[in-house]
Structures are given as C-alpha cells and as structure tokens.
Amino acid sequence: MATNRTFTMIKPDAVEKGHIGAILEKISSAGFKIAALKLTQMTKADAEAFYAIHSERPFFGELVEFMTRGPIVAAILEKENAVDDFRTLIGATNPAEAAEGTIRKLYAASIGENAVHGSDSDENAAIEGAFHFAGREQF
Ligand code: DAT
Ligand code: MG
Predict the structure, then answer these.
(1) Which residues form the signal peptide (predicted)?
(2) Which of 6, 24, 32, 97 is the most exposed place for a label (fewest CB within 10 A)?
(3) For residue 113, which ligand has an atom nearest its CA?
(4) Per residue in 28-54, pLDDT tens?
C-alpha cells in the first residue's frame, strides 16, 4: 500500500484532560509522521461545515457544541495505509466498544466525547486536511 495521508483532531475533551502529549506519542509510536500540526479552536460555522454530513442526525447540535467548546489539536499524518491504520489505532466511535489499547479506549469517555477524529477515506482526508491547513502549513 502506498504511503498516504489522513487527518486527525485531538478533540476538546482530550485537550482539557491534558492528553495531547500521550496521544501524539501513541500516534508517533504507531509509525505516523506528522505532516502538519496546530492547536486551534473551531467556530460554530467551522464545526457545522466540517460535520455537515451529520447535520440531520439528532446529536448534531451537541456535536457542534462539544467541538467548539475549547481548543483542539489538528494534524495531518502520513503513513502507509494511513486512513485505515489510523481508524484501527483510534478504535470504535463508541469507546465502550473500542478495542483494548486504542486511543478511544484509553482516553475517551463517551460516544459523544470520544477524544479523537480520524478521516474515513482518502478523499475525506484530503478535504479535511485542506479545511484546517493552508498549503504552506503542510510538509
Ligand atoms: P467517527 O468519528 O468514528 O468517524 P461518525 O463519523 O459516525 O464517527 O460520527 C462523528 C462524530 O459524531 C463522532 O465521533 C461522535 C459523534 N457521534 C456519532 N454518533 C453519535 C451518537 N450516537 N451520539 C452522540 N454523538 C455521536
Ligand atoms: Mg466519521
């Protein structure tokens, strides 16, 4: 599988709890190279656009509220088979169902506040990376 990229966010819950360092360490140890990285905060409009695909879901308002309540760490990650391998590293959306040792199992409290985002396709990884990073911020 060719080397490619995925996009991640360390979400406000994990930032609030002081888990940035531990999560970045797990990401690096799993073989991902950081191609872009920053601490930032999404506006309501940002979160509504980023999660537009979920706009009709009953949890949409909660999701936007949560994702905008404090800073996040946004990053573009590079590795062979990046999208799928990163989804494996973070675990299931619901931490109660996430495999042992995954980031969500270790650091997430609930399905709504689940510590990290990971893109679900190469196409979305490119869209989401470009949403957060200008070309000159990507290496
Ligand atoms: P993932 O983040 O694993 O790709 P998703 O794309 O289905 O999951 O949903 C995006 C986010 O929306 C998810 O990380 C947390 C929130 N979410 C999903 N399902 C939810 C639910 N049933 N209740 C509350 N929040 C939910
Ligand atoms: Mg998703």
Answers:
(1) none
(2) 97
(3) 1
(4) 999 999 999 999 999 999 999 999 999
